Amino acid sequence: MGFEVTIRVYWEDTDAGGIVFYANYLKFFERARTEWLRSLGLHQRALREREGGMFVVSEASVRYLRPARLDDELVVTARLEEAGRASVVIAQQAFLRPPGGGAPDSAALLAEGRVRTGWVDAQRLRPARIPPLVAERLAQASGLSLHPFTNPTA
Amino acid sequence: MGFEVTIRVYWEDTDAGGIVFYANYLKFFERARTEWLRSLGLHQRALREREGGMFVVSEASVRYLRPARLDDELVVTARLEEAGRASVVIAQQAFLRPPGGGAPDSAALLAEGRVRTGWVDAQRLRPARIPPLVAERLAQASGLSLHPFTNPTA
Amino acid sequence: MGFEVTIRVYWEDTDAGGIVFYANYLKFFERARTEWLRSLGLHQRALREREGGMFVVSEASVRYLRPARLDDELVVTARLEEAGRASVVIAQQAFLRPPGGGAPDSAALLAEGRVRTGWVDAQRLRPARIPPLVAERLAQASGLSLHPFTNPTA
Amino acid sequence: MGFEVTIRVYWEDTDAGGIVFYANYLKFFERARTEWLRSLGLHQRALREREGGMFVVSEASVRYLRPARLDDELVVTARLEEAGRASVVIAQQAFLRPPGGGAPDSAALLAEGRVRTGWVDAQRLRPARIPPLVAERLAQASGLSLHPFTNPTA
C-alpha cells in the first residue's frame, strides 16, 4: 500500500449526515502526502524557503466507497504512481482500521483517489521543473527514475 | 453555465501558499449544489426529515487551472449532466469574477469538476432510489427526464 | 447591531451532532469582520501589499446559546467596541434569521463573542501601530476616535 | 500540564498569513479533549448511542500568544479545571514542540484557552445531567469529585 499514516476522525471532520464530509478526504490525503515527503527528508516549509517553490495540486479525483464516522481510525496511504519533470501523481487510499487494530484489508477501503501535484515557483505560482534535490529523493524512495524515463510535458 | 452562486474567498479558505486550499473547492462546489437544489424547492434538511434520505457524494474530480486568493470573488456553477435512478452527476466550475464585476469569461476559469452524488437512506446509508418528488423537480429543472432514459444502475 | 452579513449554514459547517461545529462560529465572525472592513474601503489583501501588515487575532471568546443547523440562515454582526494604537476589539453576534425573513430579535441569538485583533507586520508578525489610513477609516466609521482617547498599550 | 496530544500543522490548518488560522486552535483543542476522554474510556460516539447524549460547547475563549506555521509540531493539552452536574470546564494550551523534540517550556506557549462543555440530550439538545458513568470517570481521572463539591447550576 506504500507509505501510510494513521488518522483519527474528530468532530471537525464529520457533518450533519453523521459521516466524514467528502472534502475532508482531500485533507487526509494531503496529510499523508506531507508525511510521505517528510519521510523522504522533504520538509515543505524548508523547501519553500530554500528552493523558492512548492507543490500545488493540479488534479484530484476521489471515489467514495464507504462512509467513515466519528472516532473511527483510518489508515491513509500515499504511493508515487507517475513522475514527470514538473509534476507527480500520487495514488491514495483511506481504509478503516479494524476495531482490534492491525492492517486493514481491502473490504475496509473507504475512499481512493489520485492527486497530481506540480512544482511551482512560490511567488508567481508558475509551473517549474522539480528541483534536483527533490526529484532525487522521490526517485530513490520510489524506485522510479523521475526525469529520464517520464513524460517531459507532464 | 447553468445555476450559479457568488462566493467570496475568506482567510479560512486560503493556505500558507497564499491561495485557496485545494480541498476547499469541494466546499464551494457543495454550496453551489445546495443552492441549486434550494432553487428547485429542494431543502436538504427538510428532505431528510420528510423522505428519510439524503444525497451523499460517491465520486468527485477537480482540475485546478488557476489559483484564487484572499478577497477574490468567485462565480461557482452547478449543472445537471447525467441523471439515474439512484444518483446524479453535476458538472461544476469556479470562475474568478472580473474586478469590475460582470460575467466571467472562460479565461477566468479557476477550477472545474464533476461530482456524482447518490441518494441514500439516512439511517443505514444504503443507496436507494431518488424519491419521486426529488426526481421530478430535477427533471423539470434540467429538461432531462430522470428515470426512463437513463442508466438504471447508475 | 452594527454591520451585518447573511451567512447560510452548509454541510461543511455542521458536525455529526447535527449542528454547526463550535469552531466555525469563528469563521463566521471572521467573514463578518472582513466584510465590515471591506465596507470601510479596507481590503485586506491590498492592505497587506501596500502597508506590509495585516490584522491577526490575539484574543477571542464565544458564548454559545442555541445551536444552528443545516440550511439555517444566520445574521452575523461586527461592531467596533474598543480601539487602540495597535489593536481593536470587535463585538460580534450570530442570530438565526426568522423563517419568514426580516430582522432577528434577541431570542434568535445563537452565539456572541468578542475578538481582539492586532496589527502586525506581515513578515515578522511583530505587533505594530495600525497604519494611519486604516485608523482613520475605522474612526470615521465607528464614531470612535482611535488614537487619542484609547489605551496606548492595547 | 495534564493530558497531552501531539498535533502536526498541515496546509489545511494555515492561512494566507502564513500561520495557523485562529479558528483552528479550537479544532486542536477539541482533538485534545476527545483524546483525553478516550484515555478515560469515554468514546463519544459510543456514549451517544448508549446514553443518548453528548457534550456540546457552551463557552470558549482563547488567547493567541505566538503564531504556529506549516510543519510545526504542537503539544496540545487538556486539564479538567471545574466540574458541575451538567457541564465541565477544560483548560487547554498549545505549545510549540522544540525542534529537537522533548517537552516544551512555557516560552513555547502559542495559545491557551478555556472551554466549557455541557451535556445535552442528543435529540433535543437540551442541557441534562452528566450521566453517572461519565461523571465517575471524570472524577477518578481528575482527582476532583464532580458532584458533591461543585456548583449545582453550572
Offer a concise description of the structure.
Chain A has about 150 residues and is an alpha+beta fold.
**What portion of the residues of chain A fall into strands of 2 or more residues?**
25-35%
> Share of helix among residues of chain A?
10-25%
- Quantity of strands of chain A, as a count: 5
Mean pLDDT of chain A: 92
How would you classify the quaternary structure? Answer: homotetramer
Largest sheet of chain A: 5 strands, antiparallel
Structural class, judged by helices and strands of chain A? alpha+beta
User: Using CB atoms under 8 Å apart, which protein chain pair has the greatest interface?
Assistant: A-B, 23 and 23 residues
Discrete helix count of chain A: 3
Q: Which parts of chain A are unreliable, with pLDDT below 50 for 5 consecutive residues or more?
A: 145-154
State the order of secondary-structure elements of chain A, H for helix, E for strand: EHHEEEEH
What strand line-up does the widest sheet of chain A have?
Answer: 1-3-4-5-2
Output the radius of gyration of chain A. 16 Å
Report, as a whole number of angstroms, the end-to-end distance of chain A: 24 Å
Overall 3D form of chain A: elongated
Can you give keywords for this protein?
alpha+beta; 3 helices; 154 residues; five-stranded antiparallel sheet
Please tell me about this protein's structure:
Four copies of one chain form a homotetramer. With 154 residues, the first copy, chain A, is an alpha+beta fold. Chain A has helices spanning 24-39, 44-51, 132-142; strands spanning 3-8, 53-64, 73-83, 87-96, 109-121. In chain A, strands 1-3-4-5-2 form a five-stranded antiparallel sheet, covered by helices on one side. In chain A, a hairpin with a 3-residue loop joins strand 3 (73-83) and strand 4. The relative contact order of chain A is 0.22. Strand 2 of chain C pairs antiparallel with strand 2 (53-64) of chain D.
